[in-house]
Amino acid sequence: MTPITEVEGRRLALSNLEKVLYPATGFTKGEVLHYYATTAAALLPHLRDRPVSFLRYPDGPDGQVFFTKNVPPGTPEWVTTAEVPRSEGPARMVLVQDLASLMWAANLVTEFHTPQWVIGAPGEADRIVFDLDPGAPATIVDCCEVALWLRERLAADGIDAHAKTSGAKGLHLLAALRPVPSEQVSEYAKQLAVEAERALPRLVVHRMTRSLRPGKVFVDWSQNAARKTTATPYTLRARPEPTVSTPVTWAEVEECGAPDRLAFRAADIAPRLEEYGDLLAPLTEPGSAGSLP
């Protein structure tokens, strides 16, 4: 029998709570739901008003993994949805606006991915993102070196950057912007990626070509395109263990001497929130946004 629970006045059927989703650690679906419930205060501001793409892994990361952009079948009528323009025609997508919607979505077993714009202004980016992806034998330690260079370069243009782990093997750099067309943000991000390659030629590549990437950090500027999404802060990832895309301090980036120093799992997040609060809160606060030069 599927348990029914009430969240903020909404009735939810939460299924298969004992199902092990991360066999390496025995982490269950019930623990996934508990993680999202206890992280909601930090996570929800990063989801609010942004159409959500779900990476679903209902049988764990070793089972079927599939990407869902359209509103899933059976979505309750009280979950907010919105029409989103796309080049191939408009689509209806989910907006996770509150705890009840978050728990409904978490019950589907999802990673959360969001664009750099809000539903009120599609294609007008209010964030810039750089996805720093290491090609083996490079690691997140190398990403940290690149992140520090990009932080200073962005600061020179009056843009205050923040870092988080990808929850996989890399690092994400984000900054709040006064809204500007996504195309302009992509052009600026590409310009900085090219500059980073010139400044750190032994370490950085700005092109996606696989043959160029071993031993270097790919500075992926393309996720600023309006059609692209990035793993949302605090989302769990479909990895062997319940790793989390985790905001980190610049001191942690500067002191990252080994890959495991910036590897965080679900159990690590509550203590970090207790110690630091949401390190990415400036991304959601009015008045903290920079302007493109």
Q: What does this protein look like?
A:
- It is a single chain.
- With 293 residues, the chain is an alpha+beta fold.
- The chain is 27% helix and 25% strand.
- The protein is built from 6 helices and 16 strands.
- The strands form 4 sheets. Strands 5, 6, 7, 8, 9 and 15 form a 6-stranded antiparallel beta sheet that branches. Strands 13-14-10-12-11-16 form a 6-stranded mixed beta sheet.
- A hairpin with a 5-residue loop joins strand 11 (162-165) and strand 12 (171-181).
- It is globular and about 55 Å long.
Key structural traits:
six-stranded mixed β-sheet; 293 residues; alpha+beta
Task: Give a brief rundown of this model.
This protein is an alpha+beta fold and 293 residues long. It is 27% helix and 25% strand.
Low-confidence stretches: none
Radius of gyration: 19 Å
Number of strands: 16
Query: Overall mean pLDDT score?
Result: 94
The helical percent reads: 25-40%
Describe the biggest sheet?
6 strands, antiparallel
Strand-and-helix sequence, N→C? EEEEHEEEEHEEHEEHEEEEHH
Secondary structure layout:
Elements: E1 4-7, E2 10-13, E3 20-22, E4 27-28, H1 29-47, E5 51-56, E6 66-68, E7 81-84, E8 91-95, H2 99-107, E9 110-114, E10 124-134, H3 140-156, E11 162-165, E12 171-181, H4 182-199, E13 204-205, E14 217-220, E15 230-231, E16 247-248, H5 250-254, H6 266-276
Parallel strand pairs: 13-14
Antiparallel strand pairs: 1-2, 3-4, 5-6, 5-8, 5-9, 7-8, 9-15, 10-12, 10-14, 11-12, 11-16
Helix pairs in contact: 1-2, 1-6
